[in-house]
Amino acid sequence: MKPSHFYAMLSRMKYINRWGLMNNTKYENISEHSQQVAVLSHCLVLIHNKRFGGSLDPERAALLAIFHDATEIITGDMPTPIKYANPEIRDVYKQVESSAADRLLSMLPEDFREDFRSVLLPQTGKDLELEPFVKAADRFSALIKCIEEMRMGNDEFRMAKATIEKSIHEMNMPEAEVFFEEFLPSFSLALDEIEG
Predict the structure, then answer these.
(1) Contact assessment for residue 69 and residue 34, using Cβ atoms and an 8 Å cutoff
(2) pTM of the predicted model, to two decimals?
(3) Burial class (CB in 10 A: 0-12, 13-18, 19+), 175
(4) CA-CA distance, 46 to 52, in Å (whole number)?
């Protein structure tokens, strides 16, 4: 049996730093980011189910979120302003991501590939329903990073914070608005205030 390099490759997520164009007080890698997006996706789907009568799978949302940036092991983290500069760049980058996902899938044993194809390249109805929650969680993770940097006195993230907040509100997701109101304010607090 041939060895599979898939999980060894995934472990390299910790070497890919985010926010490459920004002056950071603390660097964040895609492994840390993906864990936070998973937690936030789970929360947003729970809000959807408990507050808005939904019946989506929060655990599946968390799983999709864990792997949502896995292709960046191969592509690197492309800064958002570049990735979405125009439709042509966005479309080409989608092709690059798809090719990177295929490369990762090729590192798996044959009998694992279909399980991971649906995670790395979600295309089914239920997974597509979860996509907006993962996308919102991804944006909230970026917003939380901005809040944390600004708490450390780093004004570099001020404009990014305003842009990301606006983009989340423009998603018109009631679940995101609940998160803004009930959970996000705590990220601006010191540990003693959270525990107190």
Answers:
(1) yes
(2) 0.93
(3) buried
(4) 9
